[in-house]
């Protein structure tokens, strides 16, 4: 099933925040369609790793491939093209508050080169259906709950059919019931073929939605095999 090129692959990668070394000699791959949790204590390097993979931090040493882009050779001008092949979901929703759900999504499509109005309309309808928010297309962000706003962010990340979603504590600000609904949505998206790498502190979610777990610990990334996942 996973015979294709991995969607993420790191070899001897060293993850820095400026001159501070955060993670040493990172090696792992994520196959197309895989679901992977990323865990680790506060400050262990989860966000730094994700930011490196979506080219918000430079990879200063080692090799990384993401969605067929060589992160170690990436130029500034390549970043928008990489970002069209991946989706990014943060804890803070970062929607434009002065425009509707539809216009938030349309903005991204236009910014990534879409021009055909009918295609844009149908793609927006598709992603909103995927996250269960079809009826909210004309609402403003403030008319939506936190969980609904996060769904719009997920829909936005799906617009360009990414090979992988990078999610950094996507349920960090949400209550447990809403978090579980959001996790279900991520699983449905994953079942439809998109790989997911999700940083989380929420072990309940890992127990409810078992998947592969990578752990940032003592400056390294290790494959977690213990069923308890405890820190
Ligand atoms: N802009 C920065 N400049 C220098 N060091 C930073 C910067 N941002 C984070 N760090 C440091 O890098 C290390 C890793 O931080 P990072 O945010 O990646 O951890 P994390 O595992 O995502 O933590 P959390 O779970 O709290 O989000 C920490 O020691 C942190 O203090």
Helix and strand topology:
Blueprint: E1 8-17, E2 20-30, E3 35-39, H1 46-53, E4 61-66, E5 69-70, H2 79-83, E6 86-89, H3 101-111, H4 117-130, H5 146-158, E7 164-168, H6 176-191, E8 195-199, H7 203-208, E9 212-217, E10 220-224
Parallel strand pairs: 3-8, 3-9, 6-7, 7-8
Antiparallel strand pairs: 1-2, 1-4, 4-5, 9-10
The protein binds adenosine-5'-triphosphate.
Adenosine-5'-triphosphate binds at residues 17-18, 20, 22, 40, 42-48, 216.
Explain the overall architecture.
The model has no long low-confidence stretch (mean pLDDT 92). Helix content is 32%, strand content 26%. It has one domain: P-loop containing nucleotide triphosphate hydrolases (Rossmann fold). It contains 7 helices and 10 strands. It has 231 residues and is of the alpha/beta class. The protein has a 6-stranded mixed sheet with strand order 6-7-8-3-9-10, sandwiched between helices. It has a 4-stranded antiparallel sheet with strand order 2-1-4-5, covered by helices on one side. The structure holds adenosine-5'-triphosphate. The site of adenosine-5'-triphosphate (ATP) has 13 residues, from strand 2 and helix 1.
The first-level CATH class is given as Alpha Beta
CATH superfamily: P-loop containing nucleotide triphosphate hydrolases
Distinct small molecules: adenosine-5'-triphosphate
Largest sheet: 6 strands, mixed
**pLDDT below 50 for ≥5 consecutive residues: which ranges?**
none
Question: Helicity level, as a percent range?
Answer: 25-40%
Strand content is 25-35%
- Order of strands side by side in the largest beta sheet? 6-7-8-3-9-10
Architecture (CATH level 2) name? 3-Layer(aba) Sandwich
Kindly provide the radius of gyration, computed on alpha-carbon positions and rounded to a whole number of angstroms: 17 Å
Tally of contiguous helical segments: 7
Average predicted confidence as pLDDT? 92
What's the N-to-C terminus distance?
A: 32 Å
Query: What count of structural domains?
Result: 1
